[in-house]
Amino acid sequence: MLIGHDGDEGEYEDQDDDEDEDEFPDDDEIQDDDEGEDDEGEDDEGYNEIEDESQKRAVVDTSDPPDDEATSTWSSNSQEDHPQDPALDILLRFCYSAITEDYDGGVASSTMLVYFSAVRGLTAPEGDEYLKPHRFTPTLAKLIYCSRLIFLEAVLPRLSHIHGGFAHSPRHGLLRRLNAARREYMCDGTLSPMGEFLSLLSYGDALRRSQGSSFRFCWSDDGEVLSWDGNQRLSMVDFRGLAREVLRSVTASCSRLMYDWEPPHIDLSLIRDNLSTTTPGYSFVSDPTNKLTGAYPELLLRACISPIDGLLRVQGKDHGTWNTKAARAYLEAHDDHLKGLMVLYNLDGGQFARISELLTLECFNTASRERGIGLWGSKMCSITRHHKARLATNNEFYVVRFFSNPVPRLIFQYLVYTRPVAISILRKCFYIEYTDALLFSPLSQIGLKSTPWTVSTFTKELRRHCSATTGIPSGIGVQMYRQISIAITERHVRDAAIRFNRFDDTTGMAGPEVAYAWQSGHRPMQRHITYGLDGAYPDHLQPALLRAYDRVSANWHAFLWGCDKSGEPRSIPVEAEHAELNYESTRHNLTTYRKRPLISDLEETRSNRKRPRSGLGLLFSGSTMSDEVRVQPDSEESVALRAEGEVNSFTCDSMSSPLPGEQNEQAEPTHDDTSPKIGPFVHLAELNLVICLDCKTAVLARQVKTHLVDPLHRQHFTLKERRNISNQILEIPGIIKDADDLQNGKFPSPDAEPIPYLESPLHGGLGCNSCPHIGRDLRRIREHYWRDHTDVLEANNLVDLGRLGQQSHLWRNNVTYQRMFRSGPKSSWFEVGRIRC
């Protein structure tokens, strides 16, 4: 199939699979004429005329065919045994007639198929303009592909189509028969619809190259803000915040699927994975040396006997039955986790992969394909084979993406534990055998109305995370994020800006920087034409190629996370565990910056250590960032980012909304105008905090300058004004300046009125009677008790919390609650507006 666009065919945010529908009439629109004996006689005569005409069109040489053609035969032993379908035969004749229709007066648009292609070139739904070349050439490619299939079936049918006038192919001379018709109807330059399609495809490809990329990005002078479409802006601080939000979400969902169980730590350097092994079913999980195939039953046992959301119903002392509702819920949670993992794969892997590549990744070898997840050099990577350059080079090439250390742990736990457990549930509970090797494939709908994931699935998941992250413009989908990732690589990853020979990617003299073009799915020259990159052809998966991709991925991780040379974000093991997650278990070292909403507020005072001041790396890590992305020390952004580093990114989230299922009936507290205002902030003297009136979240004093860099505020205040606002707030006596001061801060008392400057309070929460913790729903308050108050449960002889509903002596219901910060310490919910008895 010819492809005329360098960009993302079919990967448009609002485009679904409707364009792939059959473009020919349905079977029931064809009228059958075999009613009565007279009609049958007329059909026979018409058939003879059609057959004679088709034989005249195909010039057959009567001489003896060459040996290679004489051996080109198709078996015809059962050609007359297949059932005849008159409607399909006539439909084939109709389609073939459309393909071979002659021009009227030499005008291509006089043919039905060319006219139809012009209609497909109009924009939907109004049709008031034509599609751009990069949008129309995929449509032409589809028409060309379908036309070729119809042509082959009509000229060389394996089985006869009597009602359409196509007899089965002869046993010899097939190539001469094909070429006779091909030269007349299927080549460029012929007066046929196919000739016009090929000409338009070539012209559209040339026109697209002259137009360049579909997006026009603009960078700020300091390189920290990316703009497009006039009013759309994305700061690099917020972009990294998106990655942290996705990592936090995926880690939390992984913990839920693992039932808060942390398996023994596995050193990837000790895991054997032979990338050259092509045996069907092989992967590092199934390698007998690693002994991983028997690791998942322990998780399955925990899932079955868990007192909360357990998969088994206990019947008697030693008997139980499957809880199909809980099993289905686990499979749905598995699919939700897999969607998040799919987004994290793209964010951490570097430049965005095309969804067509992503959805074909396989986790073990099959008879026809090699797996797409492997280990090399103690690192986990994905391997895809890119076919787009085959037209120019007659070769596919490899694209390898390495992951930073938190991500391989999540993928490892999914492949070794979560996925086998989900497949076991399908087999044991629903009696469904699942053997598909696709990595990103839903399991909850198998046996029902199962539909594979598409571009729209990824777009919805990406936009969900974007809406939950501060400063991310709405409407970013697959194609937009792909272009953004390439633009960021061009600007911030230093090696990508080094000039190299864009005409050389096949010789030993080619520099390793060409791997940046390969990673985005282009050859260097193709990348240069589209994105302006100056320009080792990766058609062999060899160590040198893997090292080149490893270097590319390491530079991306240094920009995104602030990773050290080992690929580990520096602050996760210590800072994130104590100061941000506030959780004792070391299993949450994989998680980032945000505290799980299930954690008790009593644990928030456990960390008192001073955080070192650092640069951009503290957005995720806790140390200095790499040289590739270091900001000048005297710039405004460097000062702001150092301030942000001290509190580990307490960014606002003005676009956030309550979670699904949450009772979000909101009160409208009256604003008190007596509190002093400084710029967009208001000072609450009783709490020693300032609150942003626009973002409705508290901000630490030393983070004010970073907060004002947000595009929401930056367009209203000059640099001098932002500095003055920050200095005024820092001079307020007793103001809480950083995370250390915040440890000694206290929430308002439960009977206090809601804070009017924060987001309106929510209702219907459940308050723990043993601590200040607030659970937003019944499941969360149950998990809180199982994790933090086992002594209370033992004292009350409560083993099965599933029997307790909203009304219980362990918690109080209908609690009104707010929260001060969106993330980090003191970001948990606190009770307000309690009615005194």
TrEMBL record:
It holds the Pfam family OrsD. InterPro entries: OrsD. Residues 8-52 have a biased composition (Acidic residues). Residues 653-667 have a biased composition (Polar residues). Residues 1-84, 653-674 are annotated as: Disordered. This is Uncharacterized protein. It comes from Fusarium oligoseptatum.
